[in-house]
UniProtKB/TrEMBL annotation:
It comes from Auraticoccus monumenti. InterPro entries: LemA-like_dom_sf (IPR023353), MamQ_LemA (IPR007156). Keywords: Membrane, Transmembrane, Transmembrane helix. It comes from the Bacteria. This is LemA protein. Pfam families: LemA (PF04011).
Amino acid sequence: MDALIIVIVVVVLLVVILGIAAMSMYNGFIRSRNLIQESWRQIDVELNRRYELIPNLVETVRAYASHERNTLEDVTRLRNQAQSVASHESGLPTQQRSQAEEQLSGAVRNLIVSVEAYPDLKSNVNFLELQKQLAETEDRIAAGRRFYNANVRVYNTKVDSVPSNIIAGMAKFEKATYFEVNDPAVRRAPDVNFGEIAYRGEQPPASAPSAPQVGTGQSAPGGLPDPNQQWAPQQAPQQEWSQQPQPGGYVPPSTGQQGPGQQPPSQGGYTPPQSR
């Protein structure tokens, strides 16, 4: 009888522990899902703000750059398409929304680049202000996208992991969609060639003759001096003893050729006086 009671108590304890663990996992899914929804709402606010700025930007560019009609039409069409997809969505974004916003971002970048050929437009106050506001909006969208994707990664990991995937399947928690940017123009890092920067304007032309060499007349490949070659100054006065520093540290002055009766300095740097 006592053994049966012990078994019942152990079973009840296990059920209670498993229930608490399951409840904790479920609440963790709820918190993660709410955090994802909150981070997406921040992005959605900035996307709607971009919808409002784009028509003003298009009209400003149209007044100065009527030749960019195709680019302006593309921006307007993609803006309306993205806004239409957003109006039919509820909650988290779908892959279709991500693609629409990605195409709109690329069209806006192309429009900003195309106005480089219009100096009057580049100096327009309204255009500069719209460009500044769009740049700030894009920065906030990028920051919000990183925060949102980080929350999605944590949530999707719980959905796939064991044993939380059991609770996810029972409660029908589905994986969330990343808000990604797959445009190569956005992902590509800027091309920086340090070789061109370092040697720009410093390389001599290929046909330029190399400087004349002194010594044996030999040079290394490419017209550069051979580091192993012994060099001698041109038209140097011939001396019977070298002007290299002596062990004592004394360097005698240059006197040209040694005259009769002169003696080279002795070891130690001392020169004895000449006897008459």
